[in-house]
Amino acid sequence: MELSTVLRRRRMVRAYDAARPVPAGALDQVCKAALRVPSAGFTQAVSLLVLTSPGQRAAYWDAAAERETAWLVGMRAAPVLITVWTNRTSYLDRYAEPDKGWTDRDPERWPAPYWYVDAGMTVLAMLLTATDQELGACFFGVPARRIERIRQTFDVPDDQLSVGVVSLGYPVPAAATGSPTRRPRRPATELVYRERWANAG
Least enclosed by CB within 10 Å: which of 108, 118, 146, 169? Predict the structure, then answer.
């Protein structure tokens, strides 16, 4: 698809056709896109744990879900879950190397936590590629009090910070849900400023 078409069609999908698996080639394209995003200092410390087997996906929901909801029913049907992790220590180590020179490894030097910024770009690349592959996708967070349980379930090292999960699959026809159905899209005039920070109105 044209990029403009992908951007227009991308939606957060919350209900999937459990009977339609994600083709291996499409999943590979989504994961490859995740590895092509910018990375501060070319640190490359955003990692993916891909869950495709029914047993592993069920184990994820058992570890992460706090209660049954209508949202969860639709999400449980997703045939692929990609958990996204980042490693702050890798970024601090990278920027202590000679070409960067922040040898104190102080995270306060960072104007923004780029380990999370890079992870966000990784997620967006996956969401856009999923749309290009004519799949549905959704990014969602993990309840903070459940992260340790997920670590233990999947042997995730302690230095990995949970960013969230991307679900993948073929969407089922359903009424639109989510915040965009309850909140209007803000116009560019309220969000894009030119030359100075001031509202046109």
Answer: 108
Asked if residue 46 lies in contact with residue 118, where contact means CB atoms within 8 angstroms, the answer is: yes
Q: Print the SS3 string covering the chain.
A: CCHHHHHHHCCECCCECCCCCCCHHHHHHHHHHHCCCCCHHHCCCEEEEEECCHHHHHHHHHHHCCCCCHHHHHHHCCCEEEEEEECHHHHHHHCCCCCCCCCCCCHHHCCCCHHHHHHHHHHHHHHHHHHHCCCEEEEECCCHHHHHHHHHHHCCCCCCEEEEEEEEECECCCCCCCHHHCCCCCCHHHCCCCCCCCCCC
Signed CA dihedral, 27, 29, 35, 38: sign only: negative
Does residue 96 have a pLDDT over 80? Answer: yes
pTM of structure:
0.91
131 CB neighbour count, 10 Å cutoff:
20
Residues 78 and 20: their CA atoms lie apart, in Å, by 9
Q: Identify whether the C-beta of residue 167 lies closer than 8 Å to the C-beta of residue 81.
A: yes
Among 54-68, 71-85, 90-104, 173-187, whose mean pLDDT is lowest?
173-187
Mean per-residue pLDDT, 153-180: 88
Q: List CB contacts of 99: < 8 A, sequence separation 6 or more.
A: none
> What domains lie within the chain, and their CATH numbers?
3-173 (3.40.109.10)
